Fold:
Amino acid sequence: MDTIIKNISIEKIIYKGLGLARSSNGKKILIKGNVLPKSVVDLRITKSKKDFLTAEVIKIHDYDKTWVSSSTPPCGHYLNPLSEKEIGPAYGCGGCKRQVIPYDKQLLLKQQILDDSFRKIAHKISDTDIFPIMQSPQELHYRNKIEYSFGSFDSSQSQCGFHAPWRYDQIIDISHCSLILDDTNEVISLIKKILLEEYSLSCYNTNTHQWLLRHLIVRRGENTNQIMVNIVYSDKYLSSQDDIQRQKALESLSNKPELRAKVATCLITQNNSLSENISNSNNVTMLWGEWYIFEKMTFWQSEGNKWIQATFRISPFSFFQTNTSWAEVLFSEAAKHVTQQQDTILDLYCWTWSIGISLLKQGKGNFLIWIEIIQQAIDDAWENAQINWLQDKVHFVSGKAEKLFRHDEVVRLHLAKITTIIVDPPRDWLHPKVIRFLNQIKKEYNFTLLYISCNPTTLARDIDLLLDGWYSCQTIQPVDMFPQTYHIETIAVLK
Ligand SMILES: C[S@@+](CC[C@H](N)C(=O)[O-])C[C@H]1O[C@@H](n2cnc3c(N)ncnc32)[C@H](O)[C@@H]1O
Structure:
């Protein structure tokens, strides 16, 4: 039988948007879903672990009105925690978590979560080291990439949209997402209409692994207006009838003048594996366009006293910062800490090299060494270096940062000249070997470390380890790249 806890107060909101409360015996309760700070709720316990419980909200009794915006949430798909009928995890979109909270309060919440992480984990950081969060110029329509899933699980109707919160098998059909531009929404609606309504193509089932359509990925160069569409499918168990329908639907897509006018590149990618990950090694067919689209970013070059533009080539599987205009702000912020034109910069996790290119374009540094694990990323980066006429100023090292950082000959040769090291590691943490080596070389060499992170908890832990060595903290600067969500991006500067 379900365990219900009634009239419990939410203490605070923590990382990943979880609510935190305490049971009568002091055990932590982590609450999933859209939880408002300082509310009084009834909870259903979903898991009981040794050190904590997990729960979902089933009723809200009271909440602090100052945390609620006076205007209606901008998106009809938003899971509004204050709407009685929508309580429970499965009834709304899992994308935005905060549309009901006024933007200034969203910022306050992120600041509190970051401050708490550092207070708890990085004891050597004082409150004055942490700067106020920089707010986003756009609260909506800021995403340049969206990834929808197809499905038809609880009903016979086909859906294409985001997963319901905490449900891998439940898709919420999204007719209009307020985090992307209207133009991109129109392209998506047209594709859905052709695939799902006109040709009734089947949607992949994650339980049985049967049927056709898996994902719809749309990327956009915000400053070039180029759109790339990638339709991911599985045809492992496809009947010949389905195959004929598929061919007809793809022909129809290719022959739609409205789509051809708006979409620069349209691809279809086969993924017959159980994993959702796709890459260059999948079977990809180009319906029309080139293999890539372009994005441009503009920066102020203080030495030249002028605005300059950097161009980035984005291929179907490459990582690119999701909020272009805010990436410009983040990289300008990073440039403030690279002081000299003759600097050698080492970037340990680079992909498209957007940070490195932006720094060189801003007149910061004159040589860049780049370490990256994925060969496709190195290829993208090399293309981007050439497009921006920087090919003479870069050296690429392909492989794992934790191995190469220490052993690569070029890195070792340049160590004495490196004045800036940038680390923007994948989601979780810096590898312990990278931390050890960063601490070791700091004894001998004088450089600034810029650590860009999207996880305040692991950032605080890694910084604490670095401060055990020879570093001191200059600033911890949070920036809000993803309004309406719980994501927090931070740039930490260690000297
Ligand atoms: C958050 S992205 C960095 C994005 C980059 N700073 C930019 O703005 O384009 C993290 C990158 O680290 C790479 N990566 C993951 N593990 C790695 C490892 N062990 N060594 C080197 N690179 C790694 C990923 O392929 C990815 O390109």
In short: The CA atoms of residues 262 and 352 lie 25 Å apart. The chain has a mean pLDDT of 89.
